[in-house]
Design brief:
- Chain A has 136 residues and is an alpha+beta fold.
- Chain A has helices at 34-38, 46-68, 105-108, 112-116; strands at residues 4-11, 18-23, 28-32, 76-82, 85-87, 90-92, 99-103.
- In chain A, the strands form 3 sheets. In chain A, strands 1-2-3 form a 3-stranded antiparallel β-sheet.
- In chain A, strand 5 (85-87) and strand 6 (90-92) form a beta hairpin.
- The radius of gyration of chain A is 18 Å and the shape is elongated.
Chain lengths: 136, 136
């Protein structure tokens, strides 16, 4: 599948410097800094981007699972949370971010198997995408 | 450290439906679809967001490593590439995205140890952030 890109620039040291992060070829460009990452400063940070990526992947995959079961969703919404944590003295992104999903009752009724089991459609969860290209 | 968020909405099945992904509380909101993920359609996709996140994290961490060695960088730039691949029939993001970095000669001269070794400042690489908060 197509190789996707993201870029970042940084000037100066971590605490007083500043950076710019770009999604793709410029779909989004935003400022980030020590304060926007570790405090409440204005701007974005890697954790927000990771959360958005997982929410997007998960939601698309869940749609695929529901559709394959004959219940294409009218509406799905996923909130993903990511926290950079110090574990054993090193910063890590825990492997399983907490994800909450909402879905319209209409789209999920009659498909209890899909809604009760742990959805595993995310790339991280290694689920199949029946409709995706086979190239690697 | 602060919990960060990202959200996604999806309507319809995967191939003909459409979605919206939001970074944080609205720092960025963009459309995504099957075509923007698996083809060349307009919009964004999870892989671009993951690439941007890793580029941003890596660049900030490299700045920290250089600064700790007495060489705060004047300018760093990282291009990260991410590819969703079918491995053993399942979609996966390979664990080690290819990353290329550029840096001004001025900022790196005299710090051959930092520039030659594999920078390990990314959260994924488990390096320490000397200046980061200790809370978890």
């Amino acid at each position: 599948m197509t190789v996707r890109s993201g870029t970042a620039e940084w000037h100066g040291n971590v605490q007083s410097g500043s950076g710019t992060v770009t999604v793709g070829d410029g779909v989004f460009e935003g400022a980030y800094s020590y304060d926007s990452r570790f405090g409440e400063g204005k701007g974005t940070n890697p954790e927000q981007l990771i959360a958005a990526a997982h929410a997007a992947c998960f939601t698309m995959a869940l749609s695929d699972i529901l559709s394959a079961a004959g219940h294409p969703p009218e509406s799905l919404r996923t909130d993903a949370r990511v926290q950079l944590r110090n574990i054993d003295g090193a910063p890590r992104w825990p492997a399983s971010p907490w994800i909450r999903r909402d879905a319209s009752r209409e789209s999920l009724s009659g498909c209890s198997r899909c809604t009760r089991r742990r959805p595993s459609g995310c790339a991280r969860c290694r689920a199949r995408w029946p409709g995706s290209p086979r190239s690697s």
